[in-house]
């Protein structure tokens, strides 16, 4: 048992060996293919943390002032904690959610646990208006790749307010809550925030002793173990560590595997005092067999000029068209230091610093269009492409923020102002695709996964880029009266992007260097009226900018094609959003209702003006508008609900030819999305829950001049999926939970690539059994 009266240094020496042994057992997840272990990650992290904790232990032993001591924290079961959040973590948003003039969804860890989800993408199913992407025909997208309100948002993911790294699959084991902020948010986060951003809030130490853990396994053979341990080191200091180990097959797919292990240790000093310091890190290792997709032959809506293929049977969605050489290794590490100091009279100074690094080394086999068919379908083949990515991202960031509350005359102010410094870097070697003649085609209906295919090798070419940013911002909420408020924000940002590259011409490498520097001024303004203390009606206007190279640090000299948007001579793309909405906290503030109407205009898109000369110009304009409704919270103390529905109408207002023609819609932008999850505590021991997700038709072919019916797979058909949960509190400390995903075994297309040649099938019905432990 932990004795809080023992010196912290003795505690660290006695505690760490036990936890290290237990963590190493978790880490003993081996790749069947490579027979490698990734356990050294845990041992190195814990030893480093122990070294950090030892010199700081003397500080932890000092007792803080009595007036700053925290009351005892009682840990509740997940079923007792409401889904509803009253505020977000960012100090830039100074008001409660009910008084913030913007659509914001908060997904708390309690609903994530009830649903048995483990990734960010799965958690985002709890808010409407988000759809997944599979990528270009020659480059499959993996990781957290999605759109929100009609625009790509995967480069606008943040952790504790700092931009995150790379296109990776993010785990939920160390997430306190997920904050989804919708609408252009350049004033909040800077460049590239055309449709909003996602902020992940990390779990940090608390002045309490508790241990949570879970063990789960599903019927696809995937198992998972997590643990969350928090210990007081003294009256005002604490230590916390979250660990995770997972491995096994992917439901509904042959050969594809996901294996990962992670640890997130953290220290806190000064809890309950005017000065609080947090030192925390997160380290994840993944060793996966990636999914290159399944041919779309035989799907409803599939078209091919060859009548035999049009009439061909649907392929087995479990088929794997890759190779034994397909592999994906991901390493992510981030270390963060945060300090908060109460200056008095409502003023708080905060500073957060972070260094992060992510590497992705992936070899993947993509599926192309089927070959010309013979009379015998058993002999039909499909071409395969070999893709390789070996990418490294680094980030170094520092943010300083000051919040203050004061009055000028009869007007009350809630001010938030600060300075942000950031350096982001990406290194990307070039791996040309092997000669197609060296790649064995796959049998369309009976592919052989036990085949060796050439691994793309680097040719010396590369694209390395970095962006440095200095930004100043200020937000103020003016409470004019008890009923009227004005909200405004301004961000000045100076950025510098530089790309150094080398391309191969014959046997010669041709180096190049491009630079782009500019100043961006982003803003937002809102007016809010409170007809009652528990409700608001608001109107808001905001903007954001996406300059060349904003998403991948890769400036391009070309003026044609899809990469023309990264030409440094171009102006930033500009997004403006108007929103009118209302928010209400009902049932003694246990239930939140929201409704909003929005219109987003995106200008300065690249459009082709002459297909004969392949000439492009920057004059395109796109509009997205819709309505979003939401409800989250407790209807009764035993009945919880989270639901949302969003409509979306996308249209190109100005453009020429192809997908940028006036009248064209946006790809992967369904007219209607909806999400629902509800749980009810039947007795003190039994809880039942369930929900559904709906996504209407998503268009791949949006060019109004084309006959969609003759364009391969022109769309993703609409679908809805239902899920269910039953939980039983077996003892005071142990609960058993059964989750059934895709309850009715709905057959649907999850993602479709840009050519329509391949897709990712939605996961079939999957049963998950979890034992949750809390001490």
What does this structure look like?
This protein has 775 residues and is mainly beta. The protein has a domain at 121-650: Maltoporin, Chain A (Beta Barrel), CATH 2.40.170. 8% of the residues lie in helices and 51% in strands. The strands form 6 sheets. The protein has a 22-stranded antiparallel β-barrel. A 5-stranded mixed β-sheet has the order 1-9-10-7-8. It has a 3-stranded antiparallel β-sheet with strand order 2-5-6, with no helix packed on it. A hairpin with a 4-residue loop joins β35 (719-729) and β36 (734-741). The longest helix has 22 residues, at 40-61. It is globular and about 80 Å long. Mean pLDDT is 88; it is low at 1-79.
Please give a quick description of this structure.
With 775 residues, the chain is mainly beta.
Q: How does the helix and strand content classify structurally? A: mainly beta
CATH architecture of the domain at 121-650: Beta Barrel
Mean pLDDT equals 88
Rg of Cα set: 26 Å
Q: Considering the protein shown, what is the CATH homologous superfamily of the domain at 121-650?
A: TonB-dependent receptor, beta-barrel domain
Tell the overall outline: globular
Distance between the termini: 12 Å
Largest sheet: 22 strands, antiparallel, barrel
Helix content: under 10%
Number of helices: 6
Oligomer: single chain
Poorly predicted spans: 1-79
Top CATH class of the domain at 121-650: Mainly Beta
Strand content: over 45%
Annotated CATH topology of the domain at 121-650: Maltoporin, Chain A
What's the total number of strands? 39
């Amino acid at each position: 048992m932990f004795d809080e009266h023992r010196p912290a240094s003795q505690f660290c020496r006695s505690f760490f060996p036990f936890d290290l042994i237990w963590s190493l057992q978790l880490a003993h997840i081996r790749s069947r293919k490579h027979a490698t272990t990734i356990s050294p990650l845990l041992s190195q992290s814990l030893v480093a943390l122990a070294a950090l904790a030892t010199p700081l232990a003397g500080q932890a032993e000092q007792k803080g002032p009595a007036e700053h001591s925290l009351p005892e924290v009682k840990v509740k079961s997940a079923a007792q904690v409401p889904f509803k959040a009253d505020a977000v973590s960012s100090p830039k948003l100074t008001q409660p959610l009910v008084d913030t003039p913007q659509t914001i969804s908060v997904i708390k860890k309690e609903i994530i646990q009830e649903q048995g989800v483990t990734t960010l993408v799965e958690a985002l199913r709890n808010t409407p208006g988000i759809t997944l992407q599979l990528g270009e025909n020659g480059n499959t997208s993996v990781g957290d790749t999605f759109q929100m309100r009609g625009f790509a948002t995967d480069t606008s993911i943040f952790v504790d307010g700092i931009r995150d790294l790379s296109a990776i699959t993010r785990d939920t084991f160390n997430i306190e809550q997920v904050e989804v902020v919708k609408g252009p948010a350049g004033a909040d986060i800077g460049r590239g925030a055309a449709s909003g951003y996602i902020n992940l809030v990390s779990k940090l130490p608390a002045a309490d002793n508790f241990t949570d853990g879970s063990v789960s396994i599903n019927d696809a053979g995937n198992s998972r173990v997590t643990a969350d341990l928090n210990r007081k080191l003294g009256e005002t200091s604490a230590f916390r560590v979250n660990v995770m180990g997972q491995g096994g097959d992917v439901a509904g797919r042959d050969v594809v595997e996901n294996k990962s292990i992670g640890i997130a240790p953290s220290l806190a000093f000064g809890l309950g005092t005017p000065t609080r310091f947090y030192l925390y890190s997160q380290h994840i290792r993944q060793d996966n067999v990636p999914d290159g997709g399944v041919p779309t032959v035989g799907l409803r809506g599939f078209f091919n000029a060859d009548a035999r293929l049009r009439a061909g049977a649907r392929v087995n969605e479990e088929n794997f068209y890759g190779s034994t050489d397909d592999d994906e290794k991901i390493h992510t590490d981030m270390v963060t230091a945060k300090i908060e100091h109460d200056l008095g009279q409502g003023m708080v100074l905060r500073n957060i610093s972070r260094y992060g690094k992510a590497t992705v080394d992936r070899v993947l086999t993509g599926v192309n269009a089927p070959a010309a068919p013979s009379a015998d379908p058993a002999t039909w083949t499909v071409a395969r492409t070999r893709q390789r990515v070996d990418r490294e991202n680094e980030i170094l960031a520092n943010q300083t923020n000051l919040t203050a509350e004061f009055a000028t005359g009869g007007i009350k102010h809630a001010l938030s102002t600060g300075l942000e410094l950031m350096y982001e870097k990406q290194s990307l070697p070039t791996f040309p695709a092997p000669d197609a003649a060296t790649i064995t085609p796959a049998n369309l209906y009976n592919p052989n996964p036990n085949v060796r295919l050439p691994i793309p090798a680097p040719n010396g070419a590369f694209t390395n880029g970095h962006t440095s940013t200095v930004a100043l911002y200020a937000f103020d909420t003016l409470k004019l009266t008890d009923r009227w408020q004005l909200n405004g924000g301004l961000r000045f940002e100076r950025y510098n992007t530089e790309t150094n590259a080398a391309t191969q011409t014959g046997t010669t490498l041709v180096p190049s260097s491009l630079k782009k520097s500019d100043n961006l001024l982003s803003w937002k303004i809102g007016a809010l009226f409170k007809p009652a203390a528990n409700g608001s009606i608001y109107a808001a206007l905001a903007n954001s900018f996406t300059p060349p190279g904003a998403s991948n640090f890769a400036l391009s000299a070309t003026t044609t094609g899809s990469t023309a948007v990264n030409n440094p001579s171009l102006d930033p793309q500009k997004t403006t959003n108007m929103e009118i909405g209302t928010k209400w906290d009902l049932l003694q503030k246990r239930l939140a209702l929201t409704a909003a109407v929005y219109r987003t205009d995106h200008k300065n898109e690249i459009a082709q003006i002459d297909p004969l000369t392949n000439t492009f110009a920057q004059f395109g304009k796109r509009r997205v508008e819709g309505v979003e409704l939401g409800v989250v919270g407790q209807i009764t103390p035993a009945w919880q609900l989270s639901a949302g529905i969003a409509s979306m109408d996308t249209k190109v207002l100005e453009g020429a030819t192809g997908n940028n023609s006036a009248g064209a819609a946006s790809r992967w932008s369904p007219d209607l999305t909806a999400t629902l999850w509800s749980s009810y505590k039947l007795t003190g021991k039994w809880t039942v829950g369930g929900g559904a997700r709906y996504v209407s038709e998503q268009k791949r072919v949006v060019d109004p001049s084309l006959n969609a019916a003759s364009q391969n797979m022109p769309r993703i058909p609409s679908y809805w999926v239902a899920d269910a949960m039953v939980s039983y509190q077996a003892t005071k400390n142990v609960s058993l939970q059964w989750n059934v995903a895709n309850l009715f075994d709905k057959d649907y297309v999850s993602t479709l690539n840009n050519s329509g040649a391949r897709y990712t099938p939605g996961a079939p019905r999957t049963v998950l059994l979890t034992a949750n432990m809390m001490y």
